[in-house]
């Protein structure tokens, strides 16, 4: 009897000290909250507003980070790279689509258009 009371006196405080808080990052489907996307979209718009035409592909990628979508192809002997960054929300599904992005077009590694 004394051992079980002693065990309860030792174990109970330990059990209560091990409880903690849970921080929910995503919604019930595991997607990120809309405020996360709004922050990311705002930051991308700020960075894109500072870009200069003729900037190099490497400099822009260094400033902007990983793109949401990438395309590369040759056209009339010129290398074309297109990268997309999420800048606005059209659909409330939590999935980024190209129509929610700003397109950065590079021809021969120089920024030629921001669409």
Structural description of this entry:
This protein has 115 residues and is an alpha+beta fold. It has one domain: 2-Layer Sandwich (Beta-lactamase Inhibitory Protein, Chain:B, domain 1). It contains 3 helices and 4 strands, in the order H-H-H-E-E-E-E. The protein has helices at residues 2-17, 34-50, 57-64; strands at residues 69-75, 78-86, 101-107, 110-114. A 4-stranded antiparallel β-sheet has the order 1-2-3-4. Strand 3 and strand 4 form a beta hairpin. The longest helix has 17 residues, at 34-50. The protein is elongated and about 90 Å long. The N and C termini lie far apart (77 Å). The model has no long low-confidence stretch (mean pLDDT 84).
In terms of DSSP E residues, the strand content is 15-25%
Rounded to the nearest angstrom, the radius of gyration is: 25 Å
N-to-C series of helices and strands: HHHEEEE
Main sheet strand line-up: 1-2-3-4
Q: Averaged pLDDT, please?
A: 84
Summed up, the domain count is 1
Q: How much helix is in the residues?
A: 25-40%
Identify the overall geometry.
elongated
* Cα distance spanning the termini: 77 Å
Unreliable residue stretches: none
The SS-based structural class is alpha+beta
**So what's the CATH class?**
Alpha Beta
Major beta sheet summary: 4 strands, antiparallel
CATH architecture: 2-Layer Sandwich
Protein name: DUF3192 domain-containing protein
InterPro entries: DUF3192 (IPR021534)
Pfam families: DUF3192
Signal peptide: 1-24
């Amino acid at each position: 009897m004394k051992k079980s009371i002693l065990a309860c006196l030792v174990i109970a405080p330990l059990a209560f000290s091990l409880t903690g808080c849970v921080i929910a990052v995503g919604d019930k489907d595991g997607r990120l909250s809309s405020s996360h996307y709004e922050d990311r979209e705002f930051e991308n718009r700020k960075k894109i507003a500072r870009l200069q035409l003729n900037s190099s592909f490497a400099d822009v990628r260094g400033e902007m980070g990983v793109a949401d979508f990438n395309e590369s192809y040759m056209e009339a002997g010129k290398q074309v790279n297109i990268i997309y960054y999420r800048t606005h929300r059209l659909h409330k599904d939590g999935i980024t689509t190209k129509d929610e992005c700003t397109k950065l077009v590079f021809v021969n590694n120089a920024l030629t258009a921001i669409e």
